[in-house]
Model the fold of this input.
Amino acid sequence: MAKVNMEKVKAFAGDIRQHWSKPAEGRYVPYREYKDIFIAVGSNYAGSKMLEYLWFGASCYLMMYHYKLPYLTYAIIGLINMPLNYVWTMIGWLINDNLGFLEKKKERILYGLYFGLIVVGLTLIIAPVSLLFNQNGAFVTFMNGLEGVNCDSAFKILGTHILWNGWAGARNIFWRKKLLPKFGRYKYSLYCDVIPKCIMVIVLGWLPIYAIDDVVERVWKANLAFAVYCIFGFGNSLEACAQNISPNTHERVLVRTYPIKLSHLAHSIMAIVLPVIVGFLPGKWEDINLYRWVLPITFCTFALLTMVFAGRVKERIPQPPLEKKVQINFWDGMFGVMRNKYKWVQNVVYLLDSLGNGMLPFATILYLYTMRLYGLTYSLIVALVSFAGTPPDFFTPYFMKRFSYKQIMIFYQLSRAAGNAMIVGALLFLNGNPTLCGIVCVVVLILMEMTKTVPTSVGHDMDIRINDYQMYLSGERLESFSGVFGWFTGPITSFVGLIIPLLLLAHGFNSNWDVLYVDDSRLWIITIPIIIDIIGYLLMTIPYIFWDYDDDKQNKVMAVLRRREEVTLANEMREVDVNG
Amino acid sequence: MAKREKTKKVHKNNLVDQSVYDAYKDAIPEDQIWDYQVEGLQKPHIRKPFENAKAKKIAVVVTLVIAIGLSIFFSFWILHNDPFKYTVLDDGSTELTRFSNPGDLLELRVDYVVSEVKSNTWFEKNDKGENEKHVEYELVPDETTPVAAIHEYAFNCDEKIRVIEIGKDVTYIDEKAFYSCYALREIRVDEDNPNYKDIDGVLFTKDGETLICYPIDHDAYLRERFNWHVLNEKGEEIQPWPTGDWKTKGLDKYNDYYTREYEDQVNTYVVPSTVKRIAPLAFNYSELFRLYLPEGLERLETMAIFRNWHIERVDTYTGEYKGDEPLDEKFIPATENVKYSLPDSLAYIGSDCFNSAIEMDYIYIPENVTFIGHHAFWGAARKEDGRLFGLYEIHLARSEEAFKEVECGPSWKGEYDNGLFPKTSSVIYGETRLPLPEAETPEPDTAPAE
Done:
C-alpha cells in the first residue's frame, strides 16, 4: 500500500518537474503559474479582506466606534443616490461589456458627459444649493426629517454621488482602453488603482472627520471621504482572473481547489495575527491607531506583493481577438442576458436571499457582545471557525463528481436553514448564560462552515459556467448587463431590505452598538433577522430545481467558444497574409 | 515508457474537454460559428436583429420604469421618519413609540399627541460674519389625545434633545426610554403626574424609591446651575477636565480649570436616601466622577452604571437626603457619614452594572448581596506599563464558603490584558470594608439634612 502511495507521489513530483514551465497536453496552466497564483491571489485576497475593516457601513468598526452615524442614515444615502444610479449603471454596462472599446463618437460624448458631471458634482458640494428652496416649504421640511441628513447636506451627498460617477466613469473608459489589451479584463484595474488606493487607506485613518460634533456635517463629509476612497478598487481581481485561467473545466476546478484555496492561507494568518495586534492596542478595536498604522501598513504590504506577482497570472477565456470581438449595443446586451435561462435561476435565488438583507453580522455580535472575546482568544475562535471550511474544500473535485450541482446547492440551502434554526434555539433557551450560548453557537458555526465551502466552490463554478453560456449565446459574457435583473427585483429587495433595519430600530439598535450588551435587546436584534433568513434559505431551494446545465453541456459550449476563437484567428491570419 | 504512461493517467481528465472539442470541431462549419446550437440549449443570437424588437423594448422600458418607480417610492416611504410615532394600546391609551428629531429640536414636552410639526427657518450673520442658520419649531398638540406611555428606546440615540418635559397623563415610562440621549440635560415632570417626579432634572418614580434616569449630559445643566463659565486662554468657553494621565503618571488631578469645587458641583451626584432601586441604564454614559449611594439601596439593576469611564468612587452615605437643597448649594455627605464602596443593604448587582468603570480603585461587595449578574465588572480593570489599575481585585464580605450561596453570572469578575491571554480579576474573600482613604477625603460643603 505504502509502495503504491510512494509511486503516486513520485509520479506526481515527476509530473510537476516535467510541466513546471510547459503545461501537459490538454492543459493550459503550467505548474509555475500555480505558485504565482498562490502568492498573487493570496496577497490580493488578504489585502482586499483588510479593506473590509474600512468601508462606509454600520458594521465597520471605524464607523461603529468613531463616526457613530445613525444606522438608518446609510440607507438614506443609498436612497438619495438611487434614482441617478440607474442612469450611470446603464452607461457603465455599455462601456464594461464592450471592454472600453467604443466608437469614437460615442466615446467623445461619454467623456463630455463625465466631465460635465464632475463640474455639477463639485458645484453641489460647494454651493449652498438648498437656499434656492423655501426653507419652510414641504420639501425642505421633509428632507430635514431624515435621520442624520438635512436639506443642505442632502444636496452635498447628491453632489458627491454625481462627482463620483463622473470621475469613475471617465477613468473607466480611459484605463480600460489603455490597460485591458495588455492585462486582460479582470486584473487591469489593479494597475491603475493600487497606488491611489494605498494613499486613501492611509488618509482615511488620519482624517479627523469623526471628531466633528454635528452629526449631519459628519455624515456628508464621511460620505465624501469614503466616496473618494471607493473610486479606486482593490477587489479580488486576481482570483476572478484565476477562475477563468483555463478553458478546460477540470483544470479550472483544480486551480480553484488547490492554489486558490491554499492562497487564502495568507488571509487566515492575518485573521489570527490582526486581532492579536489589536489586543495589544489600549483601545482594542476602538483604538484609532488601528486605522492610522496597523491597517495601512498591512494593506500596503499585501498590495505590493500582489503587484509583484500579478503579471504572471493569465486569463485564458477562448475569445476572438479584441479588434474582432462582437460589438454589443445596449439592446443586444439587455435582450442577451434576459434570454439566458440560468441567469433567471441565479437571480431568483438572489432575490430570495435578500430576505436577510439589513441584518447585522451575527458572528461579530456573538464574539464581541455575547462571548466578549478579544485578543488572541478572539483570533483563535475566528480562525478555528473560518479554517473549519478548508479541509472539506480539498474534496471539492470529489463532491463535484459524485453529486450534481443541483443536489449540492439544495443541500447547502437546507443546511443553512437547519444551522440557523439551531442558533435561534440556542439564543432563545440559553440567553441567560452567554458563555454556554456562545459555545453552542460556535459549534454550529463550525458545522455550517464545514458544509459551506464545497457549495461555495460549486456556486463560483456555476457563475462562471453561466458566463460561458452567455458568451455562447451572445458573443460576450455580458457580466455588467446582468445587473438589469437587479432592477426588476429592486422594488422587492428595497422593501424587504428595509424591514430588518426598522425592526432593529424598534428594539433599540441605532448608531450605538452598545445596546447589544442589553440581553433582551440583543436577543431580538439577532434572532428576528435570522428567522427571516431561515425562511429565505428554505425558499431558495426552489429555483435550483430548474438547474439542468450539466458537464456535457458545458464541454460542448466551451468547444463552440474555442471553435469561434480558432476560426476568427485563422481569418485574421489570412487577412494579414492577403494585406501583406 | 512506464513513466510516460503514468503521467498520461494523471492527466486523463484533461483530455475529456479536448475529445469533446475534437468531436465538435468538424461539426461546426466555419460559416456557422456564431449560430451553431448545442443540443438541449438555446440557439445563439449574435449580430442579428431581434424579432418584435420594438414591442419588446417597450415592454422592458415600461416594466423597468414601474420597477424603479416602486423601488424609490417604497424606500422613501419606509425611511422617512415621522418625528413622532404613536401606538394605541389595548386599553385605548396612546403610547409614544419613537421620537425622531425633525432637525434641531432641543426641548420637547410629552403630554399630548403632536398632530403637526411646523418649522420656521431663518439666517442671521454671526460674529464671524457667516450666515448662521436658526430653526424654530412649533409642535401642534391634539389636546383630545393625551400620551399615557413612553415606549422603550423611544428617544434612543437622539443627539440633540436637551430637555424633555413629561406631562401629567404619562403614567408609564419604560426604563430604557432615554438610552443614549447624549445631549439630554434634564427631564422635568409635571407636578400632577401620579407616577413620576423629577428632582433637579433627574427622573424618579413618584415614591422616590426608584431612580430611573440620570441624563447623560446632566453635567451641562449643573454647569449652568452653578454658573460655571470656564474660559481658556483664547477666551473660549471650555468643559474643564482633570490633568491627562494624572493617575498613571502621578500628577495632580486638579488644574487651573478642573478644581475640586467644580468636581463636587458638576461631576458628583448624591442619590436621595429614599431610593431603594437604581433602574437599568439609569446612569448610562454619565460623566460622573463620584457617586454617593444611600444606605438602604437594595438593587443596582442591569447596566445601572454602564460605561461610566470616569467614575472613580461609588460610596455609601447614611442619613436622610431628599435632594431639595437650594439651587445655589450642593449637598455632599459629611465624611463621618460616608462608607467606602457599596451599601450594606445592597442585595442585587445586575449584569454589566459596572462595565468600563476603569477609574475605580476599590469595590467592596457586602454580605447582603445574593446576586451578581454576568460581566458585572467587565472592562473595569486594566494593565498599563506593567501596573494594574481599576478593579483588578474584588473584595467580598462573605467567606469563600458563604459566597457559594451567591448566584453569580458568567464572567462577573471581569478581565484585564496579561500577555497573550487575559487574566481574570482576583477575589478576596472574608474582607472587612476599608476605611475612606483619608488623603482624598474632602471636607463637606454642606452637612447632611437632619
About this structure: Residues 1-15, 441-450 of chain B have pLDDT under 50 and may be disordered. Chain B touches chain A through 91 residues (CB under 8 Å). The longest helix of chain B spans residues 53-79.
